[in-house]
Amino acid sequence: MTAYRRETIFWAALTLGAFALLPWERVGKAFLAWSWSATGLTLLPTAWSLLAVGLAAALAVPIGLCGQGKRSAGATLLVASTLGVLAGLYQLARAGRAFGLGGLVCLVGLLTLVGIGLAQAGYVRGGAFVAATILWTGGLVAIFILFPLLSMLQAGVVIQGHLTTAALRRYLTSPIFLLLRHPELTTDPIRWGVGLGAAAGGVALFGARLVCGRWARALVWGIGLGAAAGVLTMLALGLGALRNSLFLAVAVGVISTGLGFVFALLESRSTLWTRRLLAPFSILPIITPAFVLGLAMIYMFGRRGFITYTLFGLSTNVFFGPLGVGVAQVLAFTPIAYLVLVGVIHSLDVSLEEAARTLRADRWTLFRTILWPLMRPGLANAILLVMIESLADFGNPLLLGGGVPFLPTEIFYAIEGRFDQHEAAVYGLVLLVITLTIFVLQRYWLGRRSYVTVTGKPSAGRPTPLPPAADLALTGVFLLFAAVTALLYGSILFGSFVKLWGINNTFTLQNYQDLMSHGVPVLLDTMQLSLLAAIPSAVFGFLVAYLTLRHRFVGRTALEFSALLSYAIPGTVMGIGYILAFNAGALQLTGTGLIIVLAFIFRGMPVGIRSGVAALTQLDPSLEEASSTLKAGTATTLRRVVLPLVRSALITGFIYSFVRAMTAVSQVIFLVSPGHDLVTVLILSWVGYGTIGRGAALSTLLIVVLAACILPAHWLANRQRFGRTAGMG
After folding, report:
1. Which residue has the higher pLDDT, 78 or 441?
2. What is the mean pLDDT of the chain?
3. DSSP 174-201
4. 3-state DSSP call for residue 23?
5. The pLDDT value given to residue 2
6. What is the pLDDT of residue 82?
7. Pairing with 151, which of 187, 542, 566, 614 sits 20 to 30 Å away (CA)?
8. 362 or 521, greater pLDDT
C-alpha cells in the first residue's frame, strides 16, 4: 500500500511540474527548446482541454496521500488519469501542432497513473510496474507500428478527405505496376491466363472429386487452383513491378532456402574439415548491408567487370536486371536461411534416426519420413524470412535493376521523383498484402501438426553422417558458393584502393582520404543514432518478452503479434508509413534525428524480443516466485533476480540491434534529411553518382566496424552456452 502512495505522488508531481514548466507544444523543430509561452499552464486561456490535464495530475496527489492503497482510491485515480490522457490527446489533435517535451512528459505521467490505478483497483496483477509497462509498450507499439500502417492504408483510399478507390484503380492498372496488354508482348497474358486457369481448375475439380468424394470440397479446390494458375500465368507472361518483385521473391526464397538447408546439413552431418568454414560464413549477412554485394556484382560482372570484361572480353549488361538482382540477393540471403535451419537441424532428436536405422530404413527413407517432416517449420520460417527480405530489398534493385521496375524502387521513385504519396501508399499496401499472404500460406502448410522433438529426456547418440558421395558433392557446392562470396567481398576491398575499376587500376589511397571530410563524420553520426536506438530497442524488446511470457492480461497476444509485426513487414512499407504518419500534425517528426532513432528502435525491437524469450524460457519461474514471496515488487525482482541471469541476452540483443540499425536502408532512406545522413544511404548515393571507389572504401570501413561489434556478441553467446553445458555436466 505504501508503494502505491509513493508511486502515485511521484508521478503526479512529475506531471504537474512538466505541465507548469515545460513546453506543451514544440518550439520550431528543436524538441528540447524551451519557451515560457508554450507551457501547458500558459496555454490554459486558449486551450481549455488542458485544464483536465492539470486537474487530473493535481487530483492524483490527494488520492495518493489519503487513499491508503484502497481499491476505491485506485478506481478514482484510474478514472481521473484516463480523462486527463484523453483530454491531452484531444488538445494535441485539435491544435494540430507538434508536441513538445512538456506534452510528452505529461502524457507519459498520466498514462503511468492509469497503470497505478489499474493495479491498485485490482484489474492487473503484478503491481503498478507491470500495469504501467503494459500501457507504455502497448502505446508505443500502437503509435510507431500500427499507426504508420493505418496511415498508409488511409493514404491509399482517402484523397482530399474523400473515401475513394480511384487511386487504387489508377495505380494498380498502371503499366509500371502491371502490364498485360501491349503491342510488344508476344502473347496475350489475359487470354492465356484465362485458358490455363480454366483448364487447371477443371483438372483440379475432377481430381479432388475422385480423391475426397465430395463435390463441395472439390469445387473449392477447383476454383482456388484454377484462379491461382490463371493469375500466375498472367504474371509470368506480363510485365511490371508486381510481376518482377513477386517472381524474384519466390525464386530467391526457394534457391536461398535450398542452399541454406544444404549448408546446415553440412554443418551438422559432414565429416570433412570444411564444415568449420560455415561459422564465419554465417556472420556475413549480419555485418553487411545486402546492397554491398550489388556493388561487388558491378565490379565483377559489370560492363568493365573483372570476370566479364577482363577475363572473357565481354562488355555486357546481362547482369543488370532481374538476373543480377537475383544473384546478389541469393548470395546475401542464403546465410540468413542457413542461420534459421542450422538450429532446427541441431534440435532434432537423434534417437528417432537410430530407431529408423534399427528398423533397417535406408538413408532416403530416413530423410523422407523423419528429417523432412520435422524440418518443415524451419523451412517455412526460412523461406518466409528470405522472401520478405527480397521484397524489402531496395539497394540491389536500385544498383542492378537496369531500369526494370521493382516495387521497392518504384515506391522510392514515387516519393522522391514523382512526389506522389498516394502512389507510394498503394504500392506499399500491395507489398503488405503479399507479405501477409505468404504468412498465411506458411501457416496453412504447417497446419496443426506437432513438431516437438525436445522433451527434456536425455537422448544419447550421434546424428547420421552424410554419405561420402553426397558429402563431397554438397561440400563442393558450398566451396563454390564461398569462393564466389569471397571473390565479391575481395573486389570491394580491392576496388577501394584503385582509382577507377576496369579503366585505371592504379593503386591509390585517395578514396580513403576522401572519407575523412564526409564519409567518416556520417559514419560516426550513424553510429551515434544507432547507439541511441539500440539501448531502448533491447530494453523494450525484453520487457515485451517478459510481459508476454510471465504475465496474463487482456491483449497479451495482440501486443506480442503487433510488436513482431515490424520485423515481418518489409522495411519499405514501414518507411512509407512513417513518412505519412509523422509528416504533420501533433506527431510531426520528419526532418529530425528522432524519427530515425524511432525507426531503428521499432525495427530492431523484435531482435530483443526473441533474445529475451530465449533467455526467459531457460529461467525457472520459481526464482521470481521466491522473490515475490519475500515481498519484493516486480521491478525489484527484475532488477535483482532476472536481469543478472539474462544479462548476456540483453547485451546480445543490444549489439544485434545496433548492427541492424547500422545496416538499415530500405526504411530509413525515406527519413534522412540534410542534417541527418546515414552511412548506407551515402554509399548508395555515391555509387549512383559513379564514385564507386569511395563507396567501396566506406563499405569496407563499415564492414570492419560492424565485425568488431558483432564478434564479441558471438563470443559472449558461445561462452554462455559452454558455461551452461559445463554446469549441467
Report:
1. 78
2. 82
3. STTT-B---TT-SS-HHHHHHHHHHHHH
4. strand
5. 61
6. 93
7. 542
8. 521
Residue 641's CATH number: 1.10.3720.10
- Identify whether 677 is part of a domain: yes
| Grid cell 539497394 in the structure block, residue | 395
DSSP 306: I
Rounded-to-integer distance, Cα 549 and Cα 613, Å = 7
Q: Which pLDDT belongs to residue 450?
A: 44
Its domain, for residue 702, covers: 496-729
C-alpha cell at 564: 513482431
Length of the chain: 729
Is the pLDDT score of 150 beyond 80?
yes
Cell of 408: 521497392
729 part of a folded domain: yes
Q: Measured between alpha carbons, how far is 533 from 556 in angstroms, rounded to an integer?
A: 25
Do 77 and 8 meet the contact criterion of CB atoms below 8 Å apart?
yes
Q: What is the pLDDT of residue 462?
A: 66
C-alpha pair distances (Å), 51 with each of 41, 115, 300, 519: 8, 21, 67, 50
The two most distant CA atoms of the chain are separated, in Å, by 88
Q: How large is the C-alpha radius of gyration of the chain?
A: 28
Interatomic CA distance for residues 433 and 441, integer angstroms: 12
Q: What is the DSSP letter of 465?
A: P
Res 447 pLDDT > 60:
no
Distance CA 140, CA 435 (A): 23
In the beta sheet, which residues pair with residue 239? Answer: 179
In our burial notation (b when 16+ CB lie closer than 10 A, e otherwise), range 691-705 reads ebbbbbbbbbbbbeb
* Cβ atoms 695, 686 nearer than 8 A: yes
CA-to-CA dists, residue 171 to 121, 237, 393, angstroms: 52, 20, 21
Q: Select the more confidently predicted residue: 727 or 99.
A: 99
pLDDT of residue 634: 77
Distance separating alpha carbons of residues 23 and 104, to the nearest angstrom: 9
Specify the pLDDT at position 498. Answer: 86
- 613 belongs to a structural domain: yes
Distance CA 446, CA 376 (A): 7
b/e 595-606 (16+ beta carbons within 10 angstroms → b): bbbbbbbbbbbb
Report the DSSP beta bridge partners of residue 507.
Answer: 498
Asked if residue 579 lies in contact with residue 588, where contact means CB atoms within 8 angstroms, the answer is: no
Picking from 727, 721, 708, 719, the residue whose alpha carbon sits closest to that of residue 283 is: 708
Average pLDDT over residues 600-619: 80
189 to 28, 29, 181, 235, 406: CA distances (angstroms): 54, 52, 7, 8, 19
Confidence of residue 455 (pLDDT cuts 50, 70, 90): very low
Write down the pLDDT at residue 55: 92
Beta bridge partners of residue 500, listed in sequence order:
504
Residue 133 lies in a domain: no
Q: How many domains does the chain have?
A: 1
State the Cα angle at 358 between 352 and 362, rounded to 5°.
85
One-character DSSP codes across 306-353: IIIIIIT-----TTSSHHHHHHHHHHHHHHHHHHHHHHHHHTS-HHHH
- Tell me the per-residue pLDDT of 390-426, one tens digit each, with 9 for 90 and over: 888 888 898 888 888 999 888 888 888 787 888 888 8
Point out which residues pair with 277 in neighbouring strands: none
Find out whether 705 and 523 touch, Cβ atoms under 8 Å.
yes
Asked if residue 724 has pLDDT above 50, the reply is no
**Torsion 76-79-85-91 (CA) sign:** negative
